[in-house]
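Annex B.
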Amino acid sequence: MYYRRNMQVKIYGLRGCCFGIANMILVKRMRETLYSALLLQDISFFDGETVGDLTSRLGSDCQQVSRVIGNDLNLIMRNVLQGTGALIYLLVLSWPLGLCTLLICFTLAAVMMVYGLYQKKAAKLVQEFTASANEVAQETFSLMRTVRVYGTEGLELKRYNHWLDKLADISLRQSAAYGVWNLSFNTLYHSTQVIAVLVGGMYILAGHITAEKLTKFILYSEWLIYSTWWVGDNVSSLMQSVGASEKVFQLMDLLPSDQFISKGMMFQKLLGHIEFVNVSFQYPSRATVPVLQRINLSIRPGEVVAIVGLSGSGKSTLVNLLLRLYEPTNGQIFIDGIPLRELDIKCLRGKIGFVGQEPKLFRMDISSNIKYGCLRNIKQEEIERAAKQAYAHDFITLLPNGYNTLVDDDLLSGGQKQRIAIARAILRDPTILILDEATSALDAESEHNVKGVLRAVRSDSSTKRTVIVIAHRLSTIQAADRIVVMDGGKIIEMGSHSELLHKDGLYARLTRKQTDALV
Ligand SMILES: Nc1ncnc2c1ncn2[C@@H]1O[C@H](COP(=O)(O)OP(=O)(O)OP(=O)(O)O)[C@@H](O)[C@H]1O
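ABC transporter B family member 26, chloroplastic-like isoform X2: predicted structure tokens.
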């Protein structure tokens, strides 16, 4: 007896261990698959999703799904087997009594199905509300400085509480449903016993079964009902996992962006000839608002082109299309005469250096931040040379650990981050360099940084680069060969600084405004 129980404990332990391992492998695989599916989505996908929501899917949702095999599935299997065994024995003992018990079990199963479906729906809501609460928390923490300065801690707490209240409400409903489910079980369980005693008693009096058989019957019917209850309980938590997993599986099933599927044309060398032919565009999230309209622009290899215009005129969008972050709605972009869509995107991006308006840094040391995304082997001297060209070397050497200083987005000033981003772009030795000058308060420093890079490009005749600079300070672009003026998604003027001043259009007006502001 002792030996059997000991064996049983060991087998339970082994089963628990195996399911634990399977569980761990499942969660790991799910997270890997989901993360890689998300990484390969179009940029427009991220316009419609929030960071908090996606991290919630990767975190708690994947964990929830793993309960399917770690807990529920093995218990369901065990209880189904136990219940089937008990049912066969009951039918053998007395088939009319067995059928009565089976009928009660079916009723229990029906209630269980309704309860399971409710749990599935509730679980989906719980996931959504949890994701929304996460989103609020993540937004608040990342904008903590703004929250502090504007004293909106109470407001943020209210926003967070709104989702917590919704979560509490749904949990309350789940508890009530659990109560109803338990009540149904108890009623049906006791009905079985009453039926067994009443009908069984009559059968004994009629001499169809013995008292011993009836006792066995009551014990086994209890076993069957309890197995049904356990199956029901586990199915309902399985349904919760299924509810939670729906969005996870939907995201996992997303096909990667076309850019990663189609094999584009590889090339060794790029001249840097860029051509926009009749390009129109609207963002998928605002499909009715045209952002670019019939853009025609040809940029020669080695030319420095500045794009200017009022805020919202579509300058950054033009660059987004060139970087193939979005596809034009109409028209085509050609690089060296080849349609952008036909070029291998990785190969192309390897030849483009891009510095955004407000560059973000990764939580790694400065050297790693500068060589980020560079596929070739980079020597420390190359990193330092790029940093010198970007006017970043001096402030980096003043940091506690120089190039090995661990930085993140908060440690450096906006201008310093921009200089590191410029060094990162220069290190790639790009054929096409795109600089989006900052619009914010770091204008003066940003202007100085961008001007420095333009000067370097001009003086370095060995490396021919096509440069596109989006400039807000018009003094930045005096080094440009050509100035393109945009307004309302269209190119309205084009020419050199003096030609445009002579034309007395938008450019001349903007220049006058900026000069007046300086006086
Ligand atoms: N991801 C996006 N989804 C939807 N609309 C967008 C998106 N990005 C920009 N827009 C809209 O497209 C228009 C052009 O924006 P864009 O950023 O290209 O202007 P810009 O000229 O670069 O402005 P700024 O000088 O302020 O940087 C704006 O009306 C903007 O609201």
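The chain has three domains: 2-115+185-242, 259-351+432-442+465-519, 357-429. Residues 2-115+185-242 form a domain with the ABC transporter transmembrane region fold fold (CATH 1.20.1560.10). Further annotation is deferred to the next reporting cycle.
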